[in-house]
Amino acid sequence: MSVVGVDFGTLNTVIAVARNRGVDVITNEVSNRATPSLVGFGPKSRYLGEPAKTQEISNLKNTVSSLKRLAGRTINDPDVQIEQQFVSALLVDVGGQVGAEISYLGKKEKFSATQLTAMFLSKIKQTTQNELKLPVSDIVISVPAWFT
Q: What's the DSSP call for residue 27?
């Protein structure tokens, strides 16, 4: 059995596994140790991690960053107003939470920060399962504080 730890950062996320011989950092599909913490949407698909980073420049308005800074906040939160300057997608109210309005599959959609974070963490889980070749059911998530 392996213990999986995820360092969920504002810009990048790192996955580590504690095994018999120590702690190993898992590489993603392009052999990087850090996976960009981004979710992007296109006309035909959703992009998570590295693919989202690749298409970010050409699809800026449909790529959401700063997932951890948005999670659990409302649109009226002063920190969200500051963060809007750095997030290229339009931030909107989604059921009392902050979310993003993007174009996905040819129509306007609104996703809450919680939904966007869940999408990204599903990618992290998939990356871990591919490396371990075992199903992953439990992980430890570290969300470092926002220091200024």
A: P
Tens-place pLDDT, residues 117-147: 999 999 999 999 999 999 998 899 998 775 5
Q: Which residue do the tokens 């850090």 mark?
A: 34
The H-assigned helical ranges of the chain are 50-55, 67-70, 78-83, 113-132
Sheet holding 46-48, edge to edge: 46-48, 39-41, 63-64
Q: Which two tokens stand for residue 71?
A: 């999670």
Query: Residue 75 — left, alpha, or beta (φ > 0 → left; ψ -120 to 50 → alpha)?
Result: alpha
Report d(CA 49, CA 128) in Å as an integer.
13
CB 41 within 8 A of CB 62: yes
Q: What is the CA radius of gyration of the chain?
A: 16
For residue 25, give the amino acid letter: V
